[in-house]
Amino acid sequence: MVRVGLVAAAAWAVAGAGVAAAETDGEPELEAAAAVGAGARGGQPLQAIDLAADLRHGALALGLGVRLRLIGDRFAVEDWDEVGDGLAVIRYLEWSHGDAERGFGIAAGTLAPLELGTVADGYTAAIDADRLHAGVRARAAIDGWSGQVALDDAAGPAVIAARADRRVDAFTFGVQGGVDPGAPAAMGTAALGMFAIDGGARTETAAGAARVASALDGGLAASLAGVGAWLGAGTETRWAGATVAVRVDGTVGSGGFVPAPFGPLYRVTRAAAGRGMDAPTLVERVRAGDLGGVGGGAALRVELLDLARVEAAMRFRPGLGGEARAGVALPHFRVVQAAAWVAAAPRLGQWAAAAELRAPIARRLQTGLEAARLYGTEGLDAPRPVWQVTAWFGVRAGP
């Protein structure tokens, strides 16, 4: 199997999309792979073929892939009828120079969820069952200044976000913003965006063999429909290859303010912010001014070397209710690799999930199983839930 599950790939870098560009020495490393899969999508039989190639050289990592699907008795031509489908041939592209303190880098393809201050909180385009979105992100840092820009889909973006900040000793001051230029024309785009200024302080101490970093941050945010503020605190403990990080924050805003608007289910929420696809859209709720008030969020992350990673987060947004997400990844076990992800907004009647299991049966042979509940958009005014289950068998050639 050469392409991991859509959401699992975006949420967790599990030997496929989202591969980190670890530097290699000497000659370029080239690997090719092919896989066949069979299963069901939305109650119809599904057959698929994946072809892929992976290249690593120095700080460059490039992965290309082609997916061909047969759904029922028809070829899925919608996989190749738009410009974005061609761009999605880039499974991942990463190149960097320097380090986080002084350097720059770019990434493209199926990207991990977007975490960008208070504007984006776990946003992913991978809940779309009918599209493989090729996003782009860039970062740069020099002499205490840093910045990053994110585009979730180069062909038809739903989120464009950016952040710039300045670090002075233990203090950081920044500006950030995000907008949805791809909202349907009837919805308008004025309310689907946010601009914020923020500041924070961070300290790090040693407690025996452990290192503990604590942070406090806050800021003011505004859109054309409302204003708000937030205050957050977090701590991260590292000891013997293990990391545990916890964060909590509180928000308050006027009736048209949506804290962290770009969350994991945003591509669904933007079209229908309620139960049933005939519910008022998010923009209509914002313009009605019924989303203001006091809210907040919490997040937990646990990492054990490179063997396991667990994350969980929740956020309560006035008028929209709670939204939670969780995921687990076991990317480097020799016998099996696995990943699972889920996001849910119960009050809005929205949820998505994906899980993947890989099991090598020989040095160059691999089997896998994917299961996902995503949202289909093909030929629809609003997304609808779609179940998909696929079993894979693949072979690879290379180092």
Fold and architecture overview:
This protein has about 400 residues and is mainly beta. It has one domain. It is built from four helices and 23 strands. The strands form two sheets. The chain has a 20-stranded antiparallel beta barrel. It starts with 5 loop residues before the first helix and ends with a strand. The N terminus is likely disordered.
Question: Can you describe this structure in just a few lines?
Answer:
Helix content is 6%, strand content 59%. The protein is mainly beta.
Features:
399 residues, mainly beta, 4 helices, globular
Shape: globular
Distance between the termini: 17 Å
Overall pLDDT metric: 84
What percent of the residues sit in helical stretches (DSSP H or I)?
under 10%
Kindly estimate the percentage of residues that lie in beta strands according to DSSP.
over 45%
Biggest sheet descriptor: 20 strands, antiparallel, barrel
| Unreliably modeled segments | 1-24, 185-189
Query: What is the structural class?
Result: mainly beta
The DSSP helix count reads 4
What is the helix/strand order? HEEEEHEEEEEEEEEEEEHHEEEEEEE
Strands, count? 23
User: How many domains is the backbone divided into?
Assistant: 1
Question: What is the rounded Rg?
Answer: 21 Å
Write the layout of secondary structure elements.
Blueprint (H helix, E strand, L loop, with lengths): L5 H6 L12 E18 L2 E15 L1 E12 L2 E2 L7 H5 L2 E9 L4 E7 L4 E3 L3 E4 L11 E8 L2 E7 L8 E9 L2 E9 L13 E15 L2 E13 L4 E13 L2 E12 L12 H4 L12 H7 L4 E12 L3 E10 L3 E10 L6 E9 L4 E13 L2 E12 L7 E14 L2
Antiparallel strand pairs: 1-2, 1-23, 2-3, 3-4, 3-5, 5-6, 6-9, 7-8, 9-10, 10-11, 11-12, 12-13, 13-14, 14-15, 15-16, 16-17, 17-18, 18-19, 19-20, 20-21, 21-22, 22-23
